[in-house]
Design goal:
Rna Polymerase Sigma Factor, Chain: A; Arc Repressor Mutant, subunit A; mainly alpha
Amino acid sequence: MADEQHDEQFINQLTGCQDSLYAYVLTLIPNPESARDILQETNVVLWRRRSDFEPGTSYNTWACKVAFFQALAFRRDKGRDRHIFSEDMMTQLADEAATDLENLSEKRTALKQCLDQLPERQRWLIAQRYSAENPTKTIAQITGQTVGAVATSIYRVRCALRDCITRRLALGDSP
């Protein structure tokens, strides 16, 4: 029963990190098809080595390390392809991407808090553009504004959000 519970927790962690793990692999191998292949291979290795994972440590860090070695193996196999990064470059990219992934949760929390502080109109505008994925032209038609006015408003709100997130992260204001 303990093994089943451990496997269930492992599967939850594995499925929960797929987007960030794919983004990590994509920084190492900037070809979407190859990155998906490496992600699949990484998932197989993670599953086979699930007993090696130490609970209480960072699952994402461990998964990224496995993905890094899978990307190195891919690079080795495709060694003559001039579109593949050198091992030194891959190591540097891997380190930077791993740091970015660790900070992603904090950035998301800060973004949510900053969005919550926006006036209703600005929150609606951002939701229309990014959550509903409406093009600027559609938002302009809905609001009766020009496309340029809507684009300018979105730009200003995005700048305000960027500044708010930067302040929150600098102050450690994000839980």
